[in-house]
Design brief:
- The chain is 48% helix and 21% strand.
- It has 184 residues and is an alpha+beta fold.
- The mean pLDDT is 84.
- It is elongated and about 70 Å long.
- The chain has a 5-stranded mixed β-sheet with strand order 1-2-3-5-4.
- A hairpin with a 2-residue loop joins strand 2 and strand 3.
């Protein structure tokens, strides 16, 4: 265990050992926190017993803690559980949209809105982070993320659109539901 090794280093009778041991312990704690954050972010919605609404609020809280000054306006009108595939797709679309906004823009506010329409779900994620930037050095990653979101929507026979919004980017999706598939 790195923590145990760091404590042992700190106890050595050598110049700077205590400082080095403490520095190693702090680095290990930092890495552990980063990994926990990544795992929390990657956790599939289908494993959440609470459903899509709490998962979206948790996602917004995660990014609010991670990026000081970033606010969220979350409006969810879902009323109950959706098909598992809808929940998973909606969560992943929101997750990727937020990640793109933070990585490639400087948003102060991200708006997430979801509403049920019969068996379908409308998803909106909009940011004020500066808009789509052609020639971005990480454009390949953005295109890959957008392709993944489109594939999720198309797998449900839905659609996904990405467009410039006033000062930012707007991602909208419609995700039809499978009447015979209900989230657990």
């Amino acid at each position: 265990n790195l923590q145990v090794d760091a404590k042992a280093i700190a106890r050595l009778d050598a110049p700077g050992a205590a400082q080095l041991g403490q520095s190693v312990r702090e680095a290990v704690i930092h890495v552990q926190e980063q990994v926990k954050g990544m795992l929390r972010q990657l956790r599939p919605v289908s494993q959440s017993e609470c459903g899509l609404e709490p998962a979206i609020h948790d996602l917004a809280a995660f990014w609010s803690r991670r990026r000081k000054g970033l606010g969220f306006d979350v409006s969810l009108a879902i009323d109950g559980r959706l098909a598992r595939s809808q929940e998973e797709a909606a969560y992943r679309i929101a997750q990727e949209s937020i990640s793109n906004a933070v990585r490639h823009g400087a948003p102060g506010l991200i708006r997430i809105a979801m509403r049920r329409d019969g068996d379908g779900l409308h998803v909106l994620v909009e940011d004020d982070g500066g808009g789509l930037k052609p020639g971005n050095s990480s454009a390949g990653l953005v295109q890959s993320g957008l392709a993944g979101m489109r594939e999720r929507a198309q797998a449900l026979k839905g659609r996904l659109d990405v467009e410039e919004a006033p000062g930012g980017v707007r991602v909208t999706a419609f995700l039809p539901g499978a009447a015979d598939e209900v989230a657990a």
